Amino acid sequence: MNQLDTIRAALAEREAQSLLRVRRIIETPCAPRVTVDGQAMLAFCSNDYLGLASEPALAAALEAGARRWGTGAGASHLVSGHYAVHEALEARLASFLGVEAALSFSTGYMVNAGIAAALAGRGDAIFADRLNHASLVDGAMLSRAEHHRYAHGDVAALERLLKSSNAKRKVILTDSVFSMDGDIAPLEALLNLAEAHDAWLVVDDAHGFGVLGPQGRGALAEAGLQSWRLICIGTLGKAAGVSGAFAAGQRDVIEFLMQHMRTYIFTTAASPAIAHALLTAIDLIESGDARRARLLDLEAQLAEGLGDSRWTLMPSRTPIQPVLLGDNDTALGVAKHLWSQQIWVPAIRPPTVPKDTARLRVSLCAKHTDADVDQLLAALNTIQVPQ
Fold it and tell me: Is 0.90 surpassed by the pTM of this model?
């Protein structure tokens, strides 16, 4: 068997196990109503929680940014690619989050892939929630530090690991909102452990930024947490509706990251036009209480609609509302039925989630209507699920 045959066999195995991923082609702007593969669909699968991805004010800001700054940065930030608008974005992010400084990146994956290696290396130790996003897992492995994974949300297990570690430098890595469950990490308890064991606490607030906390400042602001050893990271392509990412915290810590994060140093800076648009996005987040209130109403409507049904809605107070199904084939079958009803909800299966926890990942957007959620509930209630 040659290498191409090996690849084909691997694809066939994934298909047989109901693990083969499908990539859809979207032909209209990101919104609850989209055209996908030529079909009009009601979508519950975007991370565009506040409905900003197709916001006219952001489109206008992006156009204005391109006219003012051009389309490309031309170089890395530390060569000649750091524009005044990048600097303004970082200052705005820091002010909005209530920290001293921020660093901007092209993608969230770049932050998560590089931050652990900047803070830890051989002989050091990383302590990570078992359900952390794959990018945090990859970053921990790239650091070459010892990688300890504790049971999801288990503060006692983490404390035991920290107490037994003789590592010189320790880093705790966690999502704030877990992307496939929608639950929130015990952030205050994690910071207490970080303080007690002289560890960094790195919190990926990708799914909390813009949604949680006062004016959408995120999960850390909601919990009222501040510390020099606390580093907040997050993406700007979800609730912010554009693209990019950030790391934010104490000024010297952010300067250290700028000097040591290879994923920041050795890549071309994001388009300055994007940075220009993000300044407007942060304004919209800050003034977006009505959008966040709308999300809460939609979450309550969905929970009430499924409350007396056979469906198991996993506990979540975020726009991520997973419906637990367990079996891969069942999850695919339910998603296929919904698709036939012109409703797009992704079936999430292992290895993205643990074995036997396949689910529908329902993502709510502030632009969904009550009728949209009623349509989803009606379609779910017509499905016969094997017992």
Answer: yes
